[in-house]
């Protein structure tokens, strides 16, 4: 990529948006699809996994399955040149064990990708984005069962073969590091957070995903040499609560837990620090002969990551430190504002993240999730004046521009999510991220009408100016 203008975004920069199939498509039993793990999530924080709930947000979602053509036209109007989504595994292999794929599911995504291509939009696909055929989990448990590797690779080979030339970028697992984070290991690794020997199960699952990711990368490179395979991690810039050595050490340890997943995928080996962590926590990861060689030989082409917030950690909770209500964030940072859902707003943390990741790996980077979940109000005249979203996105884009000036090789940005979708964390529609409003409430009631917010026109101009007008 030509990056001769260090003061701005490079020519050919990818601008667009990202969604996940299970949070947008709906039609959860149409076209031969059977339930996925996402289809038994009721509302609530990383929510209740129940088979008897009265309402499941993913079953209808925003009906992207039937309305994708309309939505892609809106993305085209907003000048998108890239769109990230995922392929619902249970649309292609409804139980996960079929020998032959479901043609209806394959054709749906082919139609979607061809439509996007005709609109001038490049496709980036997350292969596994928090959904697995439910029948697989019922029969084999979670990703700590090695059987999942072969099922996943059959899925990968099928879709990469079918969509050769239509998909330019493949991400093997969404936020792969969350396979070892409570309480969301269910989403990433299909492991119940209440399990016995939870750490053991989570890191065993992570190892199987590393092997699967490496072999998926091999498949992608062999079938479609023009396509690129990437890691996708969740990244939160970490600060020590004080300058005490203990707090600084706690922050470094927290960073390494995030780095571990990109270290393995980008560098091709298990770092020494994680081996010590395994020893101290009585974790014994079972590896088969050849696993480490597979991981070493088939490293990713780029690193992509989500960035929403930073967090503060301490070696020990002390007054006047204030604990957050979100177990994923740590202590409250008194110097930063927060969203309606209590997440810190820290654009400078994104610049730090980009520099940290690029200094560590010297690989191309993509910011593939970043956005503001907020409560939007439709005015009497039908307008939605989400200036707070514009301010949030603009500040983070300015931070990206600074990182590029620092020398970071940043290739693209896909905001989360350009159209309102069901929140994975809470199951709500009222936690809205989009520049396009969808007229549905938290219980799926409403017209489903799409309405452009004030941020829509702003983002369209940002892209038209390649980030000059922020």
UniProtKB/TrEMBL annotation:
One of its GO terms (molecular function) is 6-phospho-beta-glucosidase activity. The active site is at residue 369. Coiled coil: none annotated. It is an enzyme of class 3 (hydrolase). Its EC number is 3.2.1.86. InterPro entries: GH (IPR017853), GH_1_N_CS (IPR033132), Glyco_hydro_1 (IPR001360), Glyco_hydro_1_AS (IPR018120). The keyword Nucleotide-binding does not apply. Keywords: Glycosidase, Hydrolase. One of its GO terms (cellular component) is cytosol. One of its GO terms (biological process) is carbohydrate catabolic process. Belongs to the glycosyl hydrolase 1 family. This is Aryl-phospho-beta-D-glucosidase BglH.
